[in-house]
Amino acid sequence: MSTINFGPDLRAVAKIEAIPMILRMVKQVTGMRFAAVARVTDKQWVTCAVDDSIAFGLKPGDELALETTICNEIRQHRTPVIFAHASEHPLFSRHHTPKLYGLESYVSIPIVRANGDFFGTLCAIDSAPANLDIPVITETLTLFAQLIAANLDMQASVDESQQELAMEKKTGHLREQLIAVLGHDLRTPLSAIRMGADMLESKLIDRPERRLATAIQSSAKRMGSLIENILDFARGRLGSGIPVEPQIVETLESDLQRVIAEIATAHPLASIEQSISVAPLNRCDPVRLCQLLSNLLANAVTHGERGGLIKVNISVEACHLVISVWNRGVPIEPELMPKLFQPYTRSEQGQREGLGLGLYIAAEIVRGHNGTIGVTSSEADGTCFTARLPTLTVPAQQATLLPETPPAPDNHP
């Protein structure tokens, strides 16, 4: 008979490292020379593990005809069967199993899973009589059978968890790939919308119509920002991380000022106070730093007091570019703090704008620069996000001494 359906059971028993020791202990406790773990169903008897010193001839995966075994009876009544001298036993001297296999001594203990399913038996046999009258033998072998059942349950739980984890990883990977593809493909029609809105605004004279074109531009710009956030999130979650391309830049201060001006224009009720002092030359990714500042400012506008003061401070401290954004408002809930930079995290007290990716992307940008980001929040001191990024800066007095272009390499020896 085929054993293909018992492959998982054979592998599960083989994974239990204690099985060989248990079988040796069964032989020592009973004084018998053959011990095995058998898988028993209503149709088949299959060896899962064996310790054989009498050359009985079974190995893992071998079968015995179910009707020739006592284990089929044990499967039905689920109680141990023990006899020490079959030929002198009132019942088993007439039983077909000892006669068929030449057995004198026999022990078989049911292995029952935690859910009540009958798995099989832990058994020992010998062609010679054995001394099995000691009560501790049955108790010990019953404990061994329970240990095997517990290990099978634990192994099944681990296997199920691993399968669920693998499926979740596969599903998550496909989902994030879909997000990336959708985000990329949405750029083309959005570009057409923005170009159309720009053309309308330049041609329309009537003020209400120009306002409509301006509203289309604003919505398209916001949609573009959401798409970029989706793409950055997909890149980060797919393992490649948000790309950061550090370079020596001379316009970092003006770039950051432009971001603040854009946020102020988009949110005219916000009062933004800024203090920016950076070196003329900085090594960083200016596009990503502008995105970082924009996300922190947008977060302050969304969750701070409506029309309240927002302070932006950007400076260089100990070879680190320090960007801090402070606002007054309802403090961040303590239970939210540990997961604040995770995706889709939002405060219950704030507005429900955006995708909940802004702080996650900000943290990824900081990580890409090998920096750190943190937050403090209290009723008395307000909320302050601070990012610290290592940067190569050149003092102003030295910047004028740097050549506009690097010298050509000297090829002479």
UniProtKB/TrEMBL annotation:
Q: Name one GO molecular function term.
A: phosphorelay sensor kinase activity
Q: Where does the record place the Histidine kinase domain? A: 181-393
Reaction catalysed by this enzyme: ATP + protein L-histidine = ADP + protein N-phospho-L-histidine
The EC number on file is 2.7.13.3
Q: Which Gene3D superfamilies match?
A: 1.10.287.130, 3.30.450.40, Histidine kinase-like ATPase, C-terminal domain (3.30.565.10)
**Lineage top rank: taxon:** Bacteria
Instruction: Fetch the Pfam families from UniProt.
Output: GAF, HATPase_c, HisKA
Q: Which of UniProt's keywords are assigned here?
A: Kinase, Phosphoprotein, Transferase, Two-component regulatory system
Stored PANTHER family: HISTIDINE KINASE 1 (PTHR43711:SF1), TWO-COMPONENT HISTIDINE KINASE (PTHR43711)
Name assigned to this protein:
histidine kinase
